[in-house]
Amino acid sequence: MTGHLTRHEEELALGTERAAVGSVRATKRTETEHVAEIVARDVEEADIERVAPAEGDTGQIETLPDGSVSIPIFEERLVVTKELVVRERVVIRKRTTTEDHRVEADLRRERIEIESTGDVEVEGREG
Predict the structure, then answer these.
(1) Is the N or C terminus of the chain more exposed, i.e. has fewer CB atoms within 10 Å?
(2) What is the mean pLDDT of residues 64-87?
(3) What span, in angstroms and rounded, lies between the C-alpha atoms of 10 and 103?
């Protein structure tokens, strides 16, 4: 009859694994600023002057059917436009650095001790 024991020992196996440790978040916020500015604009006004007709005045002015005269009056209208302008670009980059760390661990190792009793001789007792 043959018997046997299997001897084991632990070995240190080192590796790395990626683990999330946090994050970087960039948030864009829109602020509204009220602005007020003074803008000059031209406005036409009508001045009425009544004068007696001059001698030889033929009255060659366009007269409307009701007998009145139409003169266009103009004014400048204010035009406000908004333009989206790029003011800044934020670039976020990440980089990987390598750091050396000392790793310590207790490793277990099995030993097989051979004992014999009586007059039994055993070869290869170490192990």
Answers:
(1) N
(2) 82
(3) 15
